[in-house]
Amino acid sequence: MSAVRPGILLVLDGWGHAEPGEGNALAAADTPCLDRLLATPAAVLAEASGSAVGLLPGTVGNSEIGHIVIGAGRPVPYDSVLVEERINDGTLRSHETLGAALTGLAATGGSLHLIGLASDGMIHANVHHLRELLRIAALFAVPEVRIHAITDGRDVADGTAAHHLATVEGYAAEAGVGSIATVIGRGYALDKSGDLELTERAARAITDGAGHPVGKPEEALATSGRGDEWVEPGVVTGGDGQPLGPVRDGDVVLFTNFRSDRIQQLADRLYGELAGRGVTFLSLAQYDTEAPIPALVHRADAGGGLADRLAECGVRSVRIAEAEKFEHVTYYLNGRKADPAPLEEHIRISADAPPDYRTAPEMSIGRVTEAVGSAARRDDVPLVVANLANIDVVGHTGDHAATVRAAEHTDRAVEALCRVAGETGRWVLLVGDHGNAEKMLTDAGEGRRPYGGHTTNPVPAVLVPAQGRQAVRPTGTATLADIAPSVLSLLGLGPAPAMTGRALW
Ligand SMILES: O=C(O)[C@@H](CO)OP(=O)(O)O
Ligand SMILES: [Mn+2]
Ligand SMILES: [Mn+2]
């Protein structure tokens, strides 16, 4: 192992590139270290969205596919794309498991419950997929479809939930079946922090009809003082004043999100209560739930990447991130392999209390920096991988001033870590996983409004060479698929056979 040249891979989450201008929080921030690095010849822009990473053309990047591709060294067809393919070639309509479940409902008079994020943000879900599922339900003459609409305001501009609910109602009218039974903000329904109280509130609206009773879905939106994300669970009542939606014995529940991480807590909770009551569970894409929920569309293999190559070469790595991004530098970076390789160490930094990112944009970056520094000082750790979450997580609040501060905290952390790298003879490779904070305003919808979502912009990638070495300017177009081959090359190792990306430096 003595031949290995040690380094640090830092993923700056949500670090996209755009020209300076209104709404560019990264350009507005005072970030002397990052500015200096980006002005060196070793800085490039890398594609991190659309088909370059395995998404549909023009689709914004996200942390999950971003880290998968950074680790795999090749674009990996994402779950959203695989779902679209099954819709376009008609094979979702002829899916055996789905057909059997829906035929059963037609016979028993039970209901199909479609549960998922109701927006076209394309990060966790797309309402278009719901449209196809409503059409399929109509083909199978399912008597009743209840839609449990999760409001977004994070992947799409806040304040657009009414528009998306109307879209869903339009799809139901077009299919001739389906009505919205509950309206629940994603803060409740898609919690992934382990706050089971939030999940419980969402689940009880779906299972028992417990929540704010409303005559029309849009009325539920008024319950939130904190935007679309935090719409309190609302339960639509019928003419008899009773909730439309509670799941009854023998019904079918189908989750419509294609991304697993944020829906799985709710899916496990609902399965735990309802599976024993003869309720059939299905998910549109494959989930990482504890519950054995059959998927209609299976995911692509993302293995054979960086982690496998490091294991093969006996290279120890330490992975560090705040809780919010922990799976990203472990599970996703490793090609969605659940078990860490024997030579991997994982450090998860969790906040003491649920933070308000607007007032605490530093998050836990001090502890992350310390952990990276300590790992970097170890002689037995050739590779330290960390995610600096602030730019993305604070960017999602849509709060420009807070995001500027998040970028400034990140800059100071990078500066400190470059210093440690200098002292320990390490190279540092910095890369964004997708854009976010370089665009905090949108013109979509009615007029200009704050925007906290991801973007299709390229991301910076820059090498800080180990002392005494020079980095030459990479040529050609770079993508996230080039990061794993670059990391391996910097370590002094060759790429894995499955990698299609190339070493940039
Ligand atoms: O928070 C999330 O779930 C998504 C946005 O919906 O962001 P990221 O892809 O960065 O995890
Ligand atoms: Mn991200
Ligand atoms: Mn994000």
From TrEMBL:
Its cofactor is Mn(2+). Its EC number is 5.4.2.12. Residues 83-272 form the BPG-independent PGAM N-terminal domain. This is 2,3-bisphosphoglycerate-independent phosphoglycerate mutase. It catalyses: (2R)-2-phosphoglycerate = (2R)-3-phosphoglycerate. One of its GO terms (molecular function) is phosphoglycerate mutase activity. Belongs to the BPG-independent phosphoglycerate mutase family. Residues 6-493 form the Metalloenzyme domain. It comes from the Bacteria. One of its GO terms (biological process) is glucose catabolic process. SUPFAM superfamilies: 2,3-Bisphosphoglycerate-independent phosphoglycerate mutase, substrate-binding domain, Alkaline phosphatase-like. InterPro entries: Alkaline_phosphatase_core_sf (IPR017850), BPG-indep_PGM_N (IPR011258), Metalloenzyme (IPR006124), PGAM_B_sf (IPR036646), Pgm_bpd_ind (IPR005995). Mn(2+) 1 binds at residues 392, 396, 454. Mn(2+) 2 binds at residues 13, 63, 433-434. The active site is at residue 63. Substrate binds at residues 124, 154-155, 186, 192, 259-262, 325. Pathway: Carbohydrate degradation; glycolysis; pyruvate from D-glyceraldehyde 3-phosphate: step 3/5. CDD domains: iPGM. Keywords: Glycolysis, Isomerase, Manganese, Metal-binding. One of its GO terms (cellular component) is cytosol.
